[in-house]
Amino acid sequence: QVRLVESGGGLVQPGGSLRLSCVVSGTIFSRDVVGWFRQAPGKEREFVHALHWNGTTYTPDSVKGRFSISRDNAKKTVYLQINSLKPEDTAVYYCAATSRVYYSSTSYYRKTNYNYWGRGTQVTVSS
């Protein structure tokens, strides 16, 4: 069983930065992928970034250049760094994990392919 706890959200001005954390407890195997999704009010939950424990990253074109993902294996923590924040980045950010193996990288973009979820952390970008 895997448990995920997000933190680091808050209110930030446009142009600012945030680093979100996702602490992963439970057994993590080498094939597991930890991802970040976000959901704005009235919108579908969308994929933001993901990281395989072997170091492979999955990045949609929509966030390239502003979002980055990293991990601290000793702390079992995955980080999402968000720079140059915009009001449209306002959303609840969720951490998710999957131990399923997919041979297509875009499979990790689909929320239905993740079987563990955190409760989310709110990010609000406003002046």
Structural write-up:
The protein has strands spanning 2-7, 10-12, 18-26, 33-39, 46-52, 57-58, 67-72, 77-82, 91-98, 116-117, 121-125. It is globular and about 40 Å long. The protein is built from no helices and eleven strands. Strands 2, 4, 5, 6, 9, 10 and 11 form a seven-stranded mixed β-sheet that branches. The chain has a four-stranded antiparallel β-sheet with strand order 1-3-8-7, with no helix packed on it. The model has no long low-confidence stretch (mean pLDDT 92). Strand 4 and strand 5 form a beta hairpin. Helices cover 0% and strands 48% of the residues. The protein is mainly beta and 127 residues long.
In short:
The protein is an all-beta fold and 127 residues long.
What is the CA-CA span between the terminal residues?
40 Å
Number of strands: 11
Instruction: Name the overall outline.
Output: globular
| SSE pattern | EEEEEEEEEEE
Beta-strand residue percentage? over 45%
The number of helical segments is 0
**Portion of residues within helices:** under 10%
Radius of gyration: 14 Å
**Whole-number mean pLDDT:** 92
Contiguous uncertain segments of 5+ residues: none
Let me know the largest β-sheet: 7 strands, mixed
SSE class: mainly beta
